[in-house]
Model the fold of this input.
Amino acid sequence: MKIKRSRLEVWSVISIVILSIFILFIIYPLFMVLRESILSEKGSYTLKYFIKFFSEKYYFQTLFNSFKVSLAVTALSLLLGIPLAYFYSIYEMRGKEFLQIIIIICSMSAPFIGAYSWVLLLGRAGVITKFVEMMFGVQIPSIYGFNGIVLVLSTRFFPIVFLYVSGALRSIDNTLLEASLNLSCSGFKRFIKVVVPLCMPSILAASLMVFMRALADFGTPIIIGEGYRTFPVEIYKQYVGETSTNHSFAAAISVIAICITAIVFFIQKALTNHYRFSINAMHPIECKRAKGFLNVFIHIYAYGLVFISMLPQLYVIYTSFLKTSNSGAVFERGFSLDSYTLAFNRLGNAIPNTFFICGFALLAVILLSILISYLVIRRPNVVNHTIDTISMIPYIIPGSVVGIALVISFNQKPILLTGTAAIMVIAMCIRRMPYTIRSSAAILQQIPISVEEAAISLGASKIKTFFRITVPMMSNGIISGGILSWVAIITELSSSIILYNARTITLTVGIYALVSRGTDGPAAAAATILTCFTIISLLIFSKVSKSRDVVI
Done:
């Protein structure tokens, strides 16, 4: 009995350690943000910052603008992504594997790079803007403001809808579609009345993901918004203002942001529970060849949409090889590697820092995700259920709020982390952890517990069984999830922009700084480097992963 009790204590200690880490780096920072939001300059408690936000139209407008953008982006992403997923899953298409890789690349690239790229194409001095004006004498609509933000985010987020809905379509039994045909329900009518309702849980999940990302996005509005204020940008300006700062007001806006995203999250959960059902695809959908005009339309729609989404990135890559002036702000005739030379000189340690900081964050995410998924699935109890609940809190917290919360909490002794690489590692780990835990738990649920029980019956301890049996069986999913987590971490901007300093600058922050200074050559080169890292990582994922499902 002593041996058994000792083995149980090992996992109990792990549970307590993880819960303590969560309380320190998630619960405590959120409490400090709330405290800061109601603390006046004199040290007394007040609600004046909340009253200021809701009473002054200038500030409240940022919330309205964010909602307007998020709803428009969600609607447009659904309109683009659902038909793409339907065509991809129902009909035969040329180059399907290549198409899927490009779609995944579109979904994992940093939105703020897309904003910068579209400015190069459709901005006031953009190549398409100048061409249309010169050839046709037509002034194309402005890319700046609301329209530009929606364009950039929609072309980045419709792949999320595609991935969710195409995954749902793979679980639909083909006999349901055949039955609808027998009842004279085909074509668009079948799509609306049969396919969409069957995919509704996944559509709602995709809608939540797109809405939350659009609502929390910082880089796109600040680059292409041009005065169209959203609340993530307002939080940043109030906390890291060029002329003045108001940390308490920034904290109050952060609390409002958390409350809003929490409400949206719970509404989505309620709707998902309402539409939830189980289905077994005994006869998966068999792709058929479309005929005539439909076949042509499917290929034009799919490849045209993906080309439009990839065009800005392709142009940035092309731009990075143009000759530039010594400052990197003016392009000249011919090609060279000048932009890359300038980028490496100006970015300094940004690339090594990216590998170092993001690498440590990735290791922490993977380790925590494996342990937490095991605790939740294999050892359910009150403590582990609490860990699971806390682990989902970062899902509803915008990145800029995470950054502010950590700065407020750890800017003085005994735990002084502000300005260190450690605080950036923690922020990146917090930002990515909820998604990786869910994917790890899904993998673990597919592994029969009898395998572990057999190892234990042969004398192996539970810890040894975990590391020698369970983890290797999860390895394919862990590696695949790790690669996707790596891509998400290296493209993180919203929390890093608040936490970095000259010694801990990362590639995304460096690109943002170059874009802000108007040095297009080095900015394009640095963006190309980040894009290459992303593409290489996703190509490795496509080779390693045996599953067509991608968890973003």
